[in-house]
Each structure stands twice: as C-alpha cells, then as structure tokens.
From TrEMBL:
GO terms for cellular component: cytosol. It comes from Syncephalis pseudoplumigaleata. Belongs to the class IV-like SAM-binding methyltransferase superfamily. RNA methyltransferase TrmH family. Residues 74-87, 98-107 have a biased composition (Basic and acidic residues). SUPFAM superfamilies: alpha/beta knot (SSF75217), L30e-like (SSF55315). Pfam families: SpoU_methylase (PF00588), SpoU_sub_bind (PF08032). Keywords: Methyltransferase, Transferase. Residues 1-107 are annotated as: Disordered. One of its GO terms (molecular function) is RNA binding. Residues 1-18 have a biased composition (Basic residues). This is Alpha/beta knot methyltransferase. InterPro entries: Alpha/beta_knot_MTases, Ribosomal_eL30-like_sf, rRNA_MeTrfase_TrmH, SpoU_MeTrfase, SpoU_subst-bd, tRNA_m1G_MTases_N.
Amino acid sequence: MDDGKKRARRRAPGRRVYGRSTGVKSTNAGTIVTFPFPPSEAGNCHYFSPVGQGRMSDRDRKSRFKGPKPGGRGGDRDRERHGERSGKHQGKPQGRPQWRDREARGHAKGEGPVVLYGWHSVTMALANPERRIRKLFVTENVARRLADEKIDTRVPPELVHPGDIDRRLGPNAVHQGLLAEADPLPGLHLDELPQDGIVLVLDQITDPHNVGAILRSAAAFGVKAIVTTGRHSPEATGVLAKSASGALELVPIIEVPNLHRALGEMNEAGFLTVGLDSEGQGDLSKVPLHAPLALVLGAEGKGLRQLTRETCSVVARMDMPGAIKSLNVSNAAALALYIGTSRLGLMG
C-alpha cells in the first residue's frame, strides 16, 4: 500500500486514534476523547466524553508505563471484569477529620508514589480532596464507565491495555482496569484523636490483606482512626488499599514509633484501652466500656505482645459458642467493633 492510501486509511470516517494529544475528536460514531490530554487543556477537572465501541489496535496497546514491570501477563479481560462491577461510585467521603499538618502517613517506609488499583480504591481516592493524584491509567471499558457515571478524574487520564496494568502489578492483581499513582495522605497526630467513639490499635499486624479488611470494617463502624506501629506494619498502598475497598480514604492511620508509649498517652488522655486476647479476664460483651474506647488487636499467632498487654487498661476475650474459639484478626476486629459500637450506643 502506497503512502497516499495509508494516509487515506488513517483518515477514514469512524476510525479512532488513541494516544494523541489532541483532546477531542468527532467521528461518525460520536465524540471521543484521545489520551493523554495536552497540558494546556488539562485544567483542574477532567470528565470523559462518551467512548464508542471498538477495539484498540496493536499499535495503540503499547505500554505507557515506564521502568521494569514485574510479573507476567494472562487473563487480561477477565481480570478487568473481576470485582465489584455492580454498584455506583460511592461518592465523596463523609465525616473524615481535617488534618492540620501535611506530614505523609502510611508511606514513610517506601519511596515513590502510592499505587492504588481497583474500582473502589481509585474512585474513592478521586473523590477525596486530601488525596493528590499524580497519574491515572484506565482501560477502554473503564473509560466508558467513568464517562457514564460522570466521575471527575482530576488529572488527564491515559488509556492503556489491561495487559499493561498486569505487567505493572503482576498477574494476580485484580485491578479491574484502572490504576492510579498518588501521594500519601497527610498525617494525623496522636494528640489529635477525637475524644468520642472508637479507635483501633494494631500491634504489629503485618498482613496487608488483614489490615485492609480491618480498615473496611473500621469505615463501616465509624472508627475515628487506626493507630499502628511504624515498623512491622504494611504500607498504605497496593494490596492493602485494594483490600480496604476505598476505606483507606475514610479512616486516618496514625503510625507511632513506640506502641507502649502511645497506649500510655491514650490512657492519660482518658481512653479506655481494651486489649483483645483469648485469655482475657472477661468477655467483651460484659466488661464495662466507655468512650473514648480503644480496641487493641495483636497479630495472628503471637497475639498481643507482653508489654502491650500490661499497658492496656483491660484485657478482654470474646467468647464463642462453637468448637473453634478464635477468629482471623480481621474477623475478630469486625466482631469487636460490633460489640463496642452496640454497647456504646453508636449503632444508629
């Protein structure tokens, strides 16, 4: 095919071209957006125009990610479709404390941006004004969904193939077709803890899936903050953020260098610090409770450390009627929060 025919083919009506910085194109299929937007047209708010049906060409599938990309590729379209595809964008986070300092929290252990992926994790971050979004990568299907739900992307998005995100995150990450790079959230100091409601304290819980699930329960029960150790705790990014399903944007995390000292300060501030242990003196459903209440959970296996146990005001257990007397730490946190919020009259 000569050069003239090639140019004519590229200009054929209805052909979509991605990856060019021309903003908006009109075709016989309707108005489409090309990615990325030129900086001069970016502005502060970015909404997708409706994206028509069609497939990306091999040329358009070239990865936009820079640097090494761990993991292999497989199940691209299935992986994009996994997870919470039903339900609408959860909207702007409500009731989150306003931080008074700009110290980064939850990411001091690593370098570079916080990586968020999955529908709820990313869209909740987009809705959080405290979260600065650096880059947003989306697939064609997600671009269409963002347009349908009129979600403000806040930065110029870049259209990528699902396999690009797979190579960035690894083959087992359920990314649902979108990935964001963002700054860590600003910090909250221990002396800024609200004097009402419930706070969770995590004693060296290192599994990001467990911490993410605990965050999700904490958001559901209106927990004011989570206090955790600076060491022996996962970073607030990646797997943790995905497991939290958007709750990372709702519940502040306070990292402390010394949990024993932090619990002592909380005791002095009027908190009732209740350690949870299978060998506790009394059942949590019967132990006298008052607000502000701090529920302290230890890692699976070793539980609360000895010094942590000794610093808590009370060490309680949760009696189970069945043959198994212990729960996964994230399930134990959810049950403890239900008992605590019910007994403090915070359920409704």
